[in-house]
Design goal:
The protein is an alpha/beta fold. It is 35% helix and 15% strand. A seven-stranded mixed β-sheet has the order 2-10-9-8-5-3-4, with helices on both faces. Helix 4 links the parallel strand 3 and strand 4. It binds pyridoxal-5'-phosphate (PLP).
Length: 355
């Protein structure tokens, strides 16, 4: 029996990705060798890496002048790698949540960080809008989707300085104007692949401008020059990413992913707003399409665990909110079928009747 998988990450992937990866783990492309046991220096794996880069460029319509690389270390290592490679004197960080704060903390090891634009005072329930971007910073860092607080920045900023974006949890959920970014990164385990690989899309001409020496493994140029194979890449995760990108293409690309994300999230937010037991936590104009965060209304707070148990009985998993915020979080990544949202909405209606 299949579960309705609302986990925030690692999280649901298309059946196609899981099945094709399982096959390749048994026998990689008819080579008679498991993908897990195949040398990354073999031509057959080279093809996978090239495909991953080509599909990223195609699906996101990445213009020329950008490189796509696949690294280890998770999005969290990018919190340090970004300033190592880009921060000479000062950087501007928009603080929209836990991950954004962690990114700014690392940057402070490398130079001055202006992080006064923040929604912290309102418990990160919105994404700040209408602020001025300082022109004297080396770059501006944003977190487009705040996985823990359920807020999302859905518009690409027009900025006088390079925009660096952590898109770990909303990449491939809408068309992007990549030309407006200097660098985009993210861990794969939210909307792309199994854990292990981190993608980085970087505009080549923003590199090479800092005065410090950069350790070889932490230098983006190392990985660009070696097509992400300076050292052993996370082969299985890269392969799975290729499969998810094929699936996105077969299903109408990021435009269609956006349509589905709007349909699914609207359905769920409508029910949260209608249902007398629940309320959303994010401000309406900042609501995330990927991570829908909600709580019980104050007078029903003691029903929280009961509702979690109720959804579990109906084969739903992963609805508990992040341990730092509590309540509920339904993650509606690309691979989550609309039927899972329907099941959750029905559970909310039935639970309301019983309570
Ligand atoms: C999950 C997440 C991270 C952390 O990713 P790791 O790959 O575990 O380091 C960073 N940023 C955002 C927005 C996330 O959702």
């Amino acid at each position: 029996m299949k579960k309705h998988n609302f986990f925030a990450g690692p999280s649901i992937l298309p059946d196609y990705t899981v099945e094709e990866t399982a096959k390749a783990i048994q026998d990689f492309n008819g080579t008679g060798i498991s993908l897990m046991c195949m040398s990354h220096r073999d031509k057959s794996f080279d093809a996978v890496m090239n495909q991953a880069v080509a599909l990223f460029k195609e699906v996101l319509d990445i213009p020329s002048g950008y490189s796509v690389i696949f690294l280890g270390g998770g999005a969290s290592l990018q919190f340090c790698m970004v300033p190592y490679n880009l921060l000479n004197k000062k950087a501007f960080y928009v603080n929209t949540g836990t991950w954004a704060s962690k990114a700014a903390k690392e940057a402070k090891l490398f130079g001055e960080v202006d992080d006064h634009i923040s929604s912290k005072e309102a418990n990160f329930t919105y994404v700040p809008k209408g602020f001025e971007i300082p022109t004297d910073a080396d770059y501006m860092h944003i977190t487009t989707n705040n996985t823990i607080y359920g807020t999302e920045q859905l518009v690409d900023y027009t900025s006088p300085i390079p925009v660096v974006a952590d898109m770990s949890s909303d990449i491939f959920s809408r068309p992007l104007d990549v030309s407006k970014y200097g660098l985009i990164y993210g861990g794969a385990q939210k909307n792309l692949s199994c854990a292990g690989v981190t993608f980085v899309i970087v505009k080549d001409d923003i590199l090479g401008k800092v005065d410090r020496q950069i350790p070889t493994m932490l230098n983006y140029k190392t990985h660009i020059e070696k097509n992400s194979m300076f050292n052993t890449p996370p082969c299985v995760s890269v392969f799975s990413a290729v499969k998810t990108l094929e699936w996105i293409k077969q299903n109408g690309g990021v435009k269609e992913m956006e349509k589905r994300a709007i349909a699914k999230s609207t359905k769920l937010y409508d029910e949260i707003d209608r249902n007398r037991l629940f309320k959303g936590t994010a401000q309406v104009d900042s609501r995330s399409r990927m991570n829908v965060c909600f709580v019980m209304n104050d007078e029903y707070k003691d029903l929280e665990q009961k509702f979690i148990d109720f959804t579990k009985e109906r084969d739903m998993v992963g609805l508990k909110g992040h341990r730092s915020v509590g309540g509920f979080r339904a993650s509606l990544y690309n691979a989550l079928p609309e039927a899972s949202v329907d099941a959750l909405v029905q559970a909310m209606k039935d639970f309301e009747k019983q309570n």
